[in-house]
Amino acid sequence: MFSLKALTAGFVAVAAFTSVAGAQEITLRLHQMLPPQATIPAEALKPWGAKVMEESGGRLKIEQYDAMALGGTPPQLVDQVADGVVDMIWTVIGYTPGRYPTTEAFELPFMVTTGEATSKAFHEYCEKYCMEEFAGMKVIAFHTHGPGLIHSKNPIEKLEDMQGVKIRGGSRTINQMLEALGSTPVGMPVPAVSEALSKGVIGATTIPWEVTPSLRVSELVKNHTGFTGDEGLYTQTFVFAMNQASYDALPDDMKAVIDANSGIEAAAMFGRVMDSGDARGLKIAQDLGNNIITLDEAETQRWKDTAAPLIDAWIEEMNGKGMDANAMVEDARAMIAKHLGS
Predict the structure, then answer these.
(1) Would you call 28 exposed, middle or buried from its count of C-beta atoms within 10 A (0-12, 13-18, 19+)?
(2) Which of 187, 222, 190 is nearest to 208 (CA)?
(3) In which band, very low, low, confident or very high, does the pLDDT at 280 lie, cut at 50, 70 and 90?
(4) Which burial class, exposed, middle or buried, applies to 295 when counting CB atoms under 10 A from its CB (0-12, 13-18, 19+)?
(5) What are phi and psi of 203, to 5 degrees?
(6) CA-to-CA distance for 249 and 246, rounded, in angstroms?
(7) Are 30 and 239 within 8 A, CB to CB?
(8) 24: left (phi over 0), alpha (psi -120 to 50) or beta
(9) How far apart are CA 29 and CA 189, in angstroms?
(10) Which of 18, 41, 51, 139 is the least crowded, having the fewest Cβ atoms under 10 Å away?
């Protein structure tokens, strides 16, 4: 009898120890599309995970899987996190056209300023307008990149140079804009850009400076066209999110750690990382002796005037879906201006 009691007590002790140990360390799997050396994986996601681990006393561990290492394609990332296939994802929102229409206000032409200011504005905007579309996710941060520009094999020095150019676009709204500017948009996720440029599938691409080093874009093309003024031609929008059930299953003190590292300040951090990556990408192109083109004020205005009807068309489309799209665009602009001046 004594031996049976001792044995039973031993099993209970082992079970209790295992339970405590399990509570002490929780591993969350983070899946994203870019190579590990790219700006966001290396300088935003990795440090974010390290900070969470430190603030959790080592109980929360973020296991990062880069370059779609867990399978699937970049457009499938939002379903992977919503369905609980992975715990966390970082992705381009526009890779699933039409699924998150409220976010598209920030993809409209000549909206974006700096990555940090626009990211703060985008997160604030999405908290007001977008959350129903992200059901099933605990959003950590919405953010954008900095001012968008065009990287091309042949120089683009005026609007007419866009005619017939096969150019990669990263979202429905950006592709519509590129078509309005006279080019032939080719939709594809950013990891496909290098091969598409090298094989001549496209002659130009829309990506920010920050991602050009990891894709070797400044080696594949020699011309880079930007614009006069604070606003870039376009931006892509991003979401860093956690499966809602994975979040709900955390102990309250671990939820508090995630919460403390979520929100507008997390969005600002991602935006700052994008801005610093832009500076590095530009310097690489300059050091290679590439042709850095900045369209003057008059030529920039021609592009703005040509792209402006797209804004009106988007407002009409969203109004048809029962949204107050005029207010959404006005709010987007006001929020960007506010955070640019703060």
Answers:
(1) buried
(2) 190
(3) very high
(4) buried
(5) -110, -5
(6) 5
(7) no
(8) alpha
(9) 22
(10) 18
Q: Reduced to 3 states, what is the DSSP secondary structure of residue 70?
A: coil
CA distance 80 to 87: 8
Strand arrangement, sheet containing 60-65: 60-65, 26-32, 88-92, 237-243, 137-144
Contact 204, 156 (CB under 8 A): yes
Neighbouring residues of 150: CB distance < 8 A, sequence distance ≥ 6: 156, 167, 204, 205, 206, 224, 225, 233
Over the stretch 66-95, which tens digit does the pLDDT of each residue have? 999 999 999 999 999 999 999 999 999 999
Residue 39: name the closest of 242, 286, 197, 209 by CA: 209
Dihedral sign for Cα atoms in the order 38, 40, 41, 42: positive
Amino acid identity, position 147: P
Q: How far apart are CA 204 and CA 186, in angstroms?
A: 10
Separation between Cα atoms, residue 220 and residue 325, nearest integer Å: 39
pLDDT at res. 24: 75
CA–CA distance from 181 to each of 95, 108, 109, 163, 339 (Å)? 21, 13, 11, 8, 29
How far is residue 95's CA from residue 7's CA, in Å, rounded to a whole number?
Answer: 57
Question: How far, in whole angstroms, is CA 6 from its chain's centroid?
Answer: 57
Cβ atoms of 112 and 236 closer than 8 Å: no
Residue with tokens 């500017």: 181
Tell me whether residue 132 is exposed, middle or buried, using C-beta atoms within 10 angstroms of its C-beta: 0 to 12, 13 to 18, 19 or more: exposed
> What distance in Å separates the CA atoms of residue 105 and residue 96, rounded to the nearest whole number?
15
Q: Residue 154 to residues 137, 157, 249, 291, 311: CA-CA distances in angstroms?
A: 42, 9, 53, 10, 28
In this prediction, residues 280-285 reach a mean pLDDT of 98
- Please list, residue by residue across 87-102, b when 16 or more beta carbons sit within 10 angstroms of its beta carbon and e when fewer do: bbbbbbbbbbeeebbb
Q: Which amino acid, one-letter code, is at 208? A: P
* DSSP code string of 73-129: -GGGHHHHHHTTSSSEEEEEGGGSTTTSGGGGGGGSTT----HHHHHHHHHHHHHHH
Would you tell me how many other CB atoms lie within 10 Å of the CB of residue 2?
6
